[in-house]
Design a protein that fits this description.
YBR137W-like; alpha+beta; 4 strands; Beta-Lactamase
């Protein structure tokens, strides 16, 4: 019996998302790292003509921001809402939403948080430093939530493989 290949459009499981977070950890995260990671995300998005905004925050400070053609001010509002989920829960915004869905509910129904302030939609991923923990977030907005999440993960995987 052969195992069917997973479709790239199937959402990852909670376990797969948690494994991404355990794997995608920095030894350090400097201003230069934020610039290089943000620039890599811009490059990947341009190659795909993705109409996204990209944001990197560390310890409450915005270190990188870019808005590509087709993005709108609404993408910046989504970035802020998704980033707040990472800051509050210490996990990727997509993972937080997936955990609620796994319990048979939604973030909006059960978190008791204002949906105008928090959005557990894919696209914001914690910047985690070894021995320190979550210090910030890298966020993309403009694509469907799973694609936003996957774009950030792809960039982190590529960036960290070079470190």
């Amino acid at each position: 019996m052969t195992t069917p290949k997973q479709s790239p459009e199937l959402p990852p499981t909670v376990e797969e998302l948690e494994a991404q977070e355990r794997r995608l950890v920095f030894r350090q995260f400097t201003y230069d790292d934020a610039w290089a990671l943000g620039s890599l995300l811009v490059e990947l998005a341009r190659e795909r003509q993705a109409p996204v905004a990209i944001d990197i925050h560390r310890a409450g400070q915005q270190l990188f921001h870019a808005a590509l053609p087709g993005s709108t001010p609404d993408n910046d509002a989504w970035i802020a809402r998704k980033r707040r989920v990472v800051e509050r829960y210490g996990s990727a915004s997509y993972l937080v939403g997936a955990r609620f869905r796994a319990k048979g509910t939604t973030f909006e129904e059960s978190s008791r948080l204002d949906p105008d302030t928090y959005a557990a939609h894919g696209g914001s991923f914690p910047v985690t430093v070894e021995g320190v923990g979550v210090i910030g977030a890298v966020t993309v907005s403009g694509l469907p939530q799973l694609q936003d999440h996957r774009l950030v993960v792809e960039a982190l995987e590529h960036f960290l493989s070079r470190a």
